[in-house]
Amino acid sequence: MPENQEKQQPRRRQARGERRIAQLLEAAATVFTTTGYTAASTNAIAREAGVSPGTLYQFFPNKEAIAIELGDRLMHQMREAYGEALAPVGPATPVEEAVDAAVDRFIAFNCDHPVFFALMHGPDVPGRMTEEHDALHATLLSRIEELLASFLPDAPPADLTRTAHMCLGLYKAGLELVLGHEGAERAAYVRELKNVLIRYLRPLVGERPARTPAATATP
Questions:
Q1: Distances from the Cα of 216 to the Cα of 21, 153, 210, 212, 219, angstroms
Q2: CATH placement of domain 67-208
Q3: Of 25, 41, 106, 214, which has the fewest CB atoms closer than 10 Å, so is most exposed?
Q4: Rounded to an integer, what distance in angstroms lies between the CA atom of residue 168 and that of residue 103?
Q5: What pLDDT score does 40 carry?
Q6: Residue 15 — very low, low, confident or very high, per pLDDT cuts 50/70/90?
Q7: How far, in Å, CA of 103 to CA of 66, rounded?
Q8: Which of 219, 216, 218, 177 lies closest to 196, judged by CA?
Q9: What is the pLDDT of residue 151?
Q10: pLDDT for res 216
Q11: Count of CB atoms within 10 A of residue 42's CB?
């Protein structure tokens, strides 16, 4: 066999393996979302993926390994999502604009990946996932504090931390309601969630100064 063909064979096998893993993870996401992690089985995941259990075991030894791999990938995507949604804002940015941007980004992520909520809030989450989620939660709170500091530059750190905890707690409570509905009713709950956050933050932030045009040089 020519040398270039020998190099291509491992690449093809690797590509097939990656496609199979993606197929199994997609099937697992469906099963975990539908039945919950505790009731899910490797047989159900293999059936959903349209493969034999033996094929599944070539890539994952058990459902915990599947859940951990799926959770790792979702948490990576979640970090990217909140990194973009929670960037500090300019001094004249309305609080409504910041809330809209952050909530829309997070709601979109959770609606696109309902398995994330199912895994993170189930009664039997694998230990490693719990640890990684706790680390993600701590980082998320830190980013919320940084965003709040844009609106409350003179607030003591303890106040920022408390307000960040409240914002995240309100969001998580609203998220469960949002995910429990579809269509127009889901959109209505999203609006209600934004209203709750805005009404909580508005008295703390006060009126934002109007954006002023840049000064022009005088001759």
A1: 59, 27, 18, 12, 10
A2: 1.10.357
A3: 214
A4: 11
A5: 93
A6: confident
A7: 29
A8: 177
A9: 92
A10: 40
A11: 20
On the 0-12 / 13-18 / 19+ scale of CB atoms within 10 A, 99 is: buried
Q: What is the CATH number of domain 1-61?
A: 1.10.10.60
Burial call 68-84: b when 16+ CB within 10 Å, e when fewer: bbbbeebbeebeebbee
Higher pLDDT, 148 or 84: 148
pLDDT of residue 207: 57
Distances (CA, A) of 203 to 93, 169, 190, 198: 16, 18, 21, 9
Residue type, 137: H
Please name the amino acid found at residue 105.
R
DSSP structural state of residue 219: -
**171, 74, 89: which is closest to 132 by C-alpha?**
74
What are the structural domain ranges in the chain? Answer: 1-61, 67-208
Between 60 and 4, the more confident residue is: 60
